[in-house]
Design brief:
single chain; 227 residues; alpha+beta; Jelly Rolls; 4-stranded antiparallel beta sheet; 18% strand
Length: 227
């Protein structure tokens, strides 16, 4: 990548309608560069860093991934099947959920652009897996084999995998536990207000029946809350 391009500031978006020839408008990132950008954010690696070791690490990881475009409601991981992949979301929304034998669904989390999705819990990597992953919207994702991904991260040095896994696991656990706490202590109307304030992008893009499941109410109640 052109180092000068990395360090060169872009002009303010509010100036883009100007004809000033001095304006700097960066070219859109290529697909491969979008993958590198996502990986660098996940591992806290600055792309302007001159460390060849860090850049080789990102390149090694990137080679594990292939790009995939899926339609809404495409199943990516199923319960009672070993969760085998890591996903980076370039565009779209994915949902993590459990489904009972009777078809009742409990949605645990939504993943959006820039998120890394992988089998956090040991049980999900076995036939005893109870978690499912599906696309909510049409999505562009990067997919890699989980075992190869983990081995590459471990090759970075002692504790590398633990540090990476812990930060993402803690984030997911915190969000999930807070939502469960709100379900137990707040009325549905208050939870709906928080949904509007904290997740406006989900409200615009996720179907109401899925938001209702995530909020912990039946669809009819969700419709009343909207009114």
């Amino acid at each position: 990548m052109d180092q000068d391009f990395i360090n060169r500031p872009a002009s303010s978006p509010c100036s883009l309608s100007s004809s000033d020839p001095e304006l700097r408008i960066p070219a859109p990132a290529s697909a491969d560069q979008s993958l590198i950008n996502s990986l660098s954010r996940s591992f806290g690696i600055h792309l302007g860093d001159d460390s060849s070791r860090e850049q080789r690490f990102l390149a090694d990881l990137a080679r594990l991934f292939h790009k995939r475009t899926v339609e809404a409601e495409t199943s990516l991981e199923r319960h009672e099947h070993r969760w085998a992949n890591v996903y980076l979301v370039q565009y779209g929304i994915l949902r993590l959920f459990r489904e009972s034998p009777t078809g009742r669904v409990a949605i645990h989390h939504f993943f959006t652009e820039g998120d890394t999705v992988w089998p956090v819990f040991g049980r999900t990597r076995t036939q005893r897996n109870t978690l499912c992953l599906s696309a909510v919207t049409p999505a562009t994702i990067w997919v890699a084999d989980f075992t190869a991904f983990r081995d590459t991260v471990r090759s970075r040095g002692e504790g590398a995998w633990a540090n990476f896994a812990l930060s993402l696991t803690e984030e997911l656990a915190e969000l999930t536990s807070m939502r469960e706490f709100r379900k137990q202590t707040m009325p549905a109307r208050e939870r709906y207000r928080i949904l509007l304030e904290e997740y406006p992008e989900l409200v615009r893009r996720v179907p109401d029946n899925q938001l209702a499941s995530w909020l912990g109410v039946v669809p009819a109640t969700f419709s009343r809350l909207k009114k």
